[in-house]
Amino acid sequence: MKKVLIISDTHGLLRDEVKAKLPTVDFVIHAGDINTPMVLQYLNEHSELFIIRGNNDKEWACNLPKILAITIEGVRILLVHNKEDIPKELTNIDVVIYGHSHKYDDKIIDGVLCLNPGSCGNRRFNLPISMCEMWISGETYKYEKIIIK
């Protein structure tokens, strides 16, 4: 079983709650809007990282992909930053992870989990600060929303 920490929209802030999770997970997925190379560097030093570029990730992040397909165990995952960039036709995808809105969301659409972990960066409006953990075994997964106080 693999444990995955799913975060998005850190906007230059890597909270202690996120750092505390890093030793407990096999992978970190970041769905964009990292905002600073320091966050990217820290995550790279402390975890196996899958990361994409968000709309606020400027020139320093030009080498990061805007869309990324990965497989963990047997679960096929597509990463995009903005929900609007999810391809209309999803083939061979089990989970889509996106960010951008800073609002947690999880829905099954046509058999595909569409998951936004929310934002664990600076608070936006009155939205909760959140991230997600996922456990993957073979071709099955379970996940849990984590609210940061």
TrEMBL record:
It holds the Pfam family Metallophos_2. Residues 3-133 form the Calcineurin-like phosphoesterase domain. The keyword Metal-binding applies. PROSITE patterns: UPF0025. Its cofactor is a divalent metal cation. Signal peptide: none annotated. GO terms for molecular function: hydrolase activity; metal ion binding. It comes from the Bacteria. This is Phosphoesterase. It comes from Selenobaculum gibii.
